[in-house]
Amino acid sequence: MRRFATATVLGLCFAAAAHAGERPEFLSSPDPAAAKLPFSEAVRSGDLLLLSGQIGTVPGADNALAKGGIGPEAEQTLSNIRSVLERHGASMHDVVKCTVFLADIADWPAFNEVYRKHFSAPFPARSALAASGLALGAKVEVECIAQAPRKTGKAR
After folding, report:
1. Span of the secretion signal (predicted)?
2. Which domains are present in the chain?
3. DSSP per-residue string spanning 53-87
4. Helices and strands (H, E) in the chain, number of each type
5. Which pTM value belongs to this model?
6. Spatial distance between the Cα atoms of 50 and 106, rounded to a whole number of angstroms
7. Residue 100: closest CA among 83, 85, 119
């Protein structure tokens, strides 16, 4: 029994050491305008994919926010998150945590309506808070963390 315990502990130590030796991978957006910003689109660290905050900018519209209020802006924000996840081998189903920043906390119910179209039970963990001064005057910003192991090409 003692040998088994020792072997188990050693195995866990080797596995942790191998994982700890991995360097984070800093992932850039293919959008030339985003390449000028002082942050990565996402960072992969082990099996986690950490996304920078996304706002409701319309792709190809020169940083223009979706028009029409919180609903369309939230829809575009979550579509942008989906695009980032897919670009890096993940999906909305892989998201384990979201942090939502609302310029006006009164928009929380309207945001939730849109959120439910993009996420279903079991829902990711989530925090929501009011924040003034979001980038470009956005009404909402969302950052997410996904658990998305690197694809190795091996069958599971």
Report:
1. 1-20
2. 24-147 (3.30.1330.40)
3. PB--BPTTSTTPBPSSSHHHHHHHHHHHHHHHHHH
4. 4, 6
5. 0.81
6. 27
7. 119
